Amino acid sequence: MKKILLWTIIIVLLIAVAIFVIPDLVGNPGSNTDSTPEMTKEQKEKQLQIEAEQGIESVPQASVYTNTDYGFSFQKPEGFVVGVIPEAEGEVVLVQQAAPSSNSPFPTRGEPSRTKGSTPQGGGISHSGFQVYVTPLSESVTLTPNFIKSELPNILIKDPKAIQLDGKANGIMFASNAEAFDGSSYEIWFVHNGHLYQATSYAQFAEQLKEIIGTWKFN
Fold first, then answer.
1. 20 to 30 A Cα–Cα from 71, which one of 40, 86, 89, 199?
2. Is residue 82 exposed (0-12), middle (13-18) or buried (19+ Cβ within 10 Å)?
């Protein structure tokens, strides 16, 4: 389990690599698809009522990303693209806002140079987006601040809150200090069907991340 969690810090560096490889992955007619959901009038009214009560602005023209490898789906906002990077164990799902002035859905500028506490130089990854790292678990775990700290002593866990997704997955969300996210990240981790899901974004994208992960469904 410790080996899996330690990969959290390393795997975010794949975002820089994704600048070059993701165009070949987006839109691949493999196991991951996007589709526009059809909602009934009653569902739309209920959604608007919930959003009004919570003060959430409706995401226009959201579409559904479906991952059939792991049996989940979520709504992504208009103008965002999804790519998948397979790993030896698991995979990384990258969700980024498409570059408006490029034929590629992801930025094609050079890989940003990063040092601890620095910001990308010469352009690079947009802060509007997130990644989900999916890895298998060797044992059943309950995600709590104490458990995560026992595995990753140096991780920051600020304002942790317990969550449940789709009535099937329990987890935790918290502000953190992932170095690959400029030392200021937001994390949503949960466990389902023998797999650990680690969703990570820049801190300024936290509210959007909560909203998107809130639409998560297990098939």
1. 40
2. buried
Integer CA distances (angstroms), 211 to 4, 55, 110, in order: 26, 11, 31
Mark residue 148 as left, alpha or beta (left: phi above 0; alpha: psi -120 to 50; beta: remaining): alpha
User: What residues does each domain of the chain span?
Assistant: 2-27+78-218
pLDDT tens profile 143-174: 999 999 999 999 999 999 999 999 999 999 99
> Is 15 in contact with 125 (CB distance < 8 Å)?
yes
User: Residue with structure tokens 């329990």?
Assistant: 170
Asked if residue 111 lies in contact with residue 98, where contact means CB atoms within 8 angstroms, the answer is no
| Residue numbers of the chain with a pLDDT score lower than 70 | 1-62, 100-126
Q: Are 199 and 132 a contacting pair, CB within 8 Å?
A: yes
Burial track 98-121 (b if 16+ CB lie within 10 A, e otherwise): beeeeeebbbeeebbebeeeeebe
Number of residues assigned to the chain: 219
Whether 23 contacts 104, CB under 8 Å: yes
Domain 2-27+78-218, classified CATH 3.30.70, yes or no: no
